[in-house]
Amino acid sequence: MEKMIVEGGRPLEGEVVISGAKNAALPLIAATLLAPGVHVLRNVPDLRDTRTILSLLDELGATWRRDGGTLFIDSSSIAYTEVSYDLVKTMRASVLVLGPLLGRLGRAKVSLPGGCAIGERPINFHINGFERFGVTCHLEHGYVEALIDGRLQGTTVYFDIPSVTGTENILMAAVLAEGTTILRNAAREPEIGNLIDMLVGMGAEIDGKGSSQLTIRGVDQLQPAEIEIIPDRIEAGTYLIAGAAAGGEVTVRDCRPEHLPALLDKLAESGARVTVGERSVTLCLEPRDRNRLKGVDIKTMPYPGYPTDLQAQFMALMTLSNGMCVIRETIFENRFMHVAELRRMGADIRTEGNNAVVTGRGPNGLSGAPVMATDLRASSSLVIAGLAAANRTEIARIYHLERGYENLVAKLSGLGASVWKEKA
Ligand code: EPZ
After folding, report:
1. Do 403 and 294 reside in the same domain of the chain?
2. Is 92 flagged in the annotation as binding?
3. How many domains are contained in the chain?
4. What's the pLDDT tens digit per position in 125-176?
5. Residue 399: CATH number of its domain
6. Residue 122: CB within 6 Å of ligand 1?
7. Where is the active site (predicted)?
8. Cα 251 to ligand 1 centre (Å)
9. Would residue 137 show up in a list of annotated catalytic residues for this protein?
10. Residue 164 Cα, ligand 1 centroid: separation in angstroms?
11. Is residue 309 in contact with ligand 1, taking CB distance under 6 Å?
12. Which residue range(s) make up the domain with 115?
C-alpha cells in the first residue's frame, strides 16, 4: 500500500496535458469484441482500470499490445467464458463486455457487480434492455448468464434514468441485432459519442449521436476499428479546480472545452478567470485574489448538466470560499464519502441526505491532516484540499486515484506542487 504526501500552500503555475478519457477507453476497448481482426485505439490512458479491462479481454481470448498511447487489439479468436467476480468486483465497468459478447456470440456470463462506495449501482437497466432483444438472463450465484438462440431482435429500449454504461451496453448489443433498435432517454455523455464514432467506423448504422434518442439499424457483421479516444473531461476539470483552490494560473492542454460547459460556468461564477481556447482552458486566480472566491451552488445532473464526477472536487474548492453554498448530488445515493475527510482538514460542511451545505472558511480555512481515500473522485478532492491547505496532508489508499488519473504526481509536480508517494 502507498500513501500520497502533499505539502500545500503553494500556487500552481503552468500547463498540463490531458490524457485520453478513462470512461471512453473502457467501452471502446469492450467494443473491439464485436468484430474479429486488429483494432487500433489511439490516446488510450495507461490506468489501473484500462489494465483491468485488458486482462478481461485476455480471459476472453483476445490478444493485444500497447505501443505508447496506441493499443492494437485482435479479438479474432474470442471464446465464450465467464468473467469472474474477482475482476468485476475491482471494476464495475467489466459489465460492458455483456453487450458485445451477446452481439457477437449470443451468450455471456458475467459476475454481477457488487455495490461500491458511492452507491448500490444496480444493472437492472442493462438486464431489462437485453431481455427486450429476446435474450434470456439467468441471475444465480452472483452471476448473470445471458443467452439467445440465433440473433438479437431489434426493439425499443427506454431508460428510466439516462444510464451511461447502460446506454453503451445496449448500443453495443443493438449494432449486430436483426432489424432496427431505438433507445429512448439515452445518456448523452461525450464518451457515448466517442463510442458511436467507433461503431460507425466499424460499419454500424446509428443516428441521433448527442441526442437522447438513438436509432440503430442492425448489420450482419462489422469490421475492425481505428479510433482516437477523446480527452478526459473529468481529469481536465480536476486540474482546473485544483488551480482555483491553490491559486495561480493553470492551462489544461489537449482538452475539449465544449465537454465541460457546466464546470467552466461555475468556475467563472466563483470568481476565477476562465479563458477558453480551441483545445485548451486557462484558469487564473491570483493567490492574492483567493479571498474573493464566492460560494456557488451546484446540482449534479446527467450530461450536459454538472457532472457528478466533479462534485467532490468542487466541494473541496467551496470549503475555501468566503461564502456558503449548497451542493446537491442527484445521481448517486452515497457520494459524500469525502465530507468526513474534508472535515478532518477543518472544512465546515453539513450534510442532509443528498444535500451538503458548505460554509467556506476562506483561502486559509484548511489545514493539512492524515486522510483516507474512499473512491476515485473523493480521492482527487482530498488532493485538491491538500494543495490548498498549509503544511502537510497524507492521503492513504491512493490506489483509488491510480484507477483514473494518469501520471498524477508527475503532472502536479509539473505545475509546481510538492507531492510524492511513500510506502504507507
Ligand atoms: C458511469 O457510471 C461512469 N463510469 C461513472 O464514472 C459516472 O459517475 C456515472 O456514469 C454517471 O455519470 C463509467 O463510465 C465507466 P449510470 P455508470 O448507469 O454507467 C442508476 C468515475 O468516477 N442505475 O449512469 O455505472 C445508478 O445507480 C465513475 O469515473 C440503475 O439504477 O452510472 C445511478 O444512480 C464513477 N440501474 C444512476 O442510475 C442501472 O441499471 C446513474 O448511473 C444502471 C444505473
Report:
1. yes
2. yes
3. 2
4. 999 999 999 999 998 888 899 999 999 999 999 999 999 999 999 999 999 9
5. 3.65.10.10
6. yes
7. 116 (proton donor)
8. 29
9. no
10. 6
11. yes
12. 22-228
